[in-house]
Amino acid sequence: MRARLGILVLMLATVVFAGCGGSPTAEPVANGETYVSAVLGTGYEGALSVRNQLALGILGLEGSANEITEEQAAALLPLWQGLRGTTRSGASAVAEVDALLSQIEETLTPAQLEAVAAMQLTQDRLGEWAASQGITLGTGSGAGGGMGAGGGVSDEERATRQAENGGVGAGAGGAGGTSTVLLDEVISYLEGR
């Protein structure tokens, strides 16, 4: 198992370093993304980015027949950590992010991807998830029952997460801050698998 994880980390490092070298024209990823999924569409009203569909979808698979396996979690964890690293640096190249998202999709089964696509994940659903985690969005949207993603979180854990992420919703960019918390939640979920 450790050998597999080591190989996966080495592959991830290769992808990240390959994206860093020799391409001075690579544009930084803005709020949007350029990655196009063959399964996860973004053409419906309020659709989340593919990255956020994958993150929220993985959490939404918990407890279902399509739940992430231990082996998948071990393979997905360094990919999501790499994605978080590129996102937080603010200078990630489009090719790096696209490569990581592609690898995440390749790690999921067709049934898992179809289940995530069937969720039709939207900004409203992200708001519901945020509300279920005790995260207040700046727009005031998202009050609702949530998806049950990530299990129960204590009030203390919610407050800690909000403090660590700049008080998401309190002028921290709403969905952008929620997206960061979502990345952290997926990583935490995978670490626990």
Structural class: mainly alpha
Percentage of residues in DSSP E strands:
under 5%
Quickly count the helices: 8
- The helix content, as a percent range, equals 55-70%
Poorly predicted runs: 12-31, 139-152, 158-175
Order of helices and strands: HHHHHHHH
Number of domains: 1
What is the molecular shape? globular
Termini Cα gap: 14 Å
Mean pLDDT: 74
Query: How many β-strand stretches?
Result: 0
Walk me through the topology.
Layout: H1 2-20, H2 50-60, H3 70-89, H4 94-107, H5 110-118, H6 123-132, H7 155-164, H8 175-191
Helix pairs in contact: 1-3, 1-4, 2-5, 2-8, 3-4, 3-8
Written account of the structure:
The protein has 193 residues and is mainly α. It has one domain. The protein has helices spanning 2-20, 50-60, 70-89, 94-107, 110-118, 123-132, 155-164, 175-191. Helix 2 crosses helix 8 (175-191) and helix 3 (70-89) packs antiparallel against helix 4 (94-107). The longest helix has 20 residues, at 70-89. The protein is globular and about 35 Å long. Residues 12-31, 139-152 and 158-175 have low confidence and may be disordered.
